[in-house]
Amino acid sequence: MTVTAGVDLRSSSAYTSSGSAPLAGLQNAAPVPTPVPSAAVPLYANPGGGLAQGQLGFEYKINQQIKLQASRVQNLGKNADVADPGQTSAELNVDFPKKGRVYVRQLWTDTATEPLAASTSGVTDLSAARSSTEVGVERAVGSATTVDSDYVIDRTASGSDAYAETGVRERLNIGKDLKGEATVQRALDFGNVGSDANGVGAFDLYGLSLAYASARFHATMQYQLRTGSSAGYTLDVSAAGEISPDFSAFVDANTSDSSTGFNNVDDKATIAYRPSLNDRDVSLFSYERQDGDVSELGTHAEVLSLEELYRPTHLTEIAAHYAYKLDGDSYYPARSSLFGIRFDQRLTHRFDVAAETRYLDVRDIPGASATGFAVEGGYRLGDQMRVAGGYNFSGSPDPNLVSAPTHRGVYGTVTSVIDSIFGWGKDSGA
Fold first, then answer.
1. Quick one: pLDDT at residue 35?
2. Does some domain include residue 266?
3. Residue 22 confidence (pLDDT)
4. Which of 38, 61, 81 finishes a domain?
5. Considering its fold, how many domains does the chain have in total?
6. How far apart are CA 321 and CA 103, in angstroms?
7. Most buried one in 88, 356, 370, 384, CB count within 10 A?
């Protein structure tokens, strides 16, 4: 028997979204008309708070073929997170040597989980089930191929709306490097009055995902289609790989569309240069396109950017950033550009000081161009994390020319450095 126990503590600060002028806070910025939010769409507010949960679980091997698992997550206090409620889970596995295994999984949650609202997420628009039963069979087809069949039945209820849904998910481990999953779900919405003669809104949900992973190349595809009530789809395709020992590339295309009127596009392509023999010079060229109406001001951006990092010595780093706006949005007009440069000097193995300046060239708005300047001191926790605090003497524009600028004043940052990912980067012995 194996027993696990733990405590999870979280805290969040209170904040409220702001409808201030996009260029407010920039030094010498010209007045910009402030968009007036609709009374029907209040600004988002997070009251802040905390969450404490206790975790207890065990795994017991009855014999070589049968294993039983159970766990409980319990809220410790009055605060509760609707996205992470208390829950109890149990699982029974029965292994058949050289043939596969059968398993049964059961989940009970204290409250129906509230999904995070994001256009790039699934378009189910449902709260998760308070209970879920899954029966699965894993069969060995060959030395490197297995087939998983999962059958899931969920029951859901979300306040004034009630949903009944059944679904089937088929998983395929096609080979050593390629895996996939297909899902089909049927649901009835008893609270969607007027959707048909019986006042019942129904929809079908179809999903397909594929993932390929080798030593030097990774690719994923996820597609979800919903028909019937609140129809829509989401599609995400990503690929990352090594072009040569010095060059690698990353591409991601993400789009979603719903019949309820929300749509979003977020595409990105990046090429990175990092010499395989040293880390003195690193370059990153990126293209990003965003377009959607999920936020109050809407999202529309098309930006080219170039980042350079140069290390003349082991103690000194010089970083430069340039971004150019191909198309305008609510924050910055088309053909606006941003140039920034940062100097970082280590004083000891742990302590360093840094200074950064940015110049924003805003087109077609007289007096809107501005310069930002900040200084900071940092402390390195090991080789992969740095904490720092500093002071921003004037408003600092967003480096990606997408969102509103930061305000002047004191700030804090936490930076994490990853030397190797997916087999790329610095060797462990370097």
1. 35
2. no
3. 33
4. 81
5. 2
6. 52
7. 370
Determine the distance from the C-alpha atom of residue 254 to the mean position of all C-alpha atoms in its chain, rounded to a whole number. 12
Q: Does residue 380 sit within a domain?
A: yes
Closest C-alpha among 135, 130, 131, 128 to residue 151:
135
Q: What is the pLDDT of residues 319-328, one digit of tens each?
A: 999 989 887 7
Residue ending a domain, among 47, 81, 115, is: 81
State how far the Cα of 357 lies from the Cα of 392, in Å rounded to an integer: 10
Q: What is the pLDDT of residue 120?
A: 33
Q: Mark the ranges of the chain whose per-residue pLDDT is less than 50.
A: 15-46, 114-127, 157-161, 193-200, 296-297, 428-430
The predicted structure's pLDDT at residue 330:
64
Domain range for residue 22?
Answer: 1-81
| pLDDT tens profile 67-112 | 999 999 998 876 665 556 788 999 999 998 877 889 898 888 887 6
| Residue 323 forms part of a structural domain | yes
87, 57 Cβ separation under 8 angstroms: no
pTM (2 decimals)?
A: 0.59
Amino acid symbol at 225: L
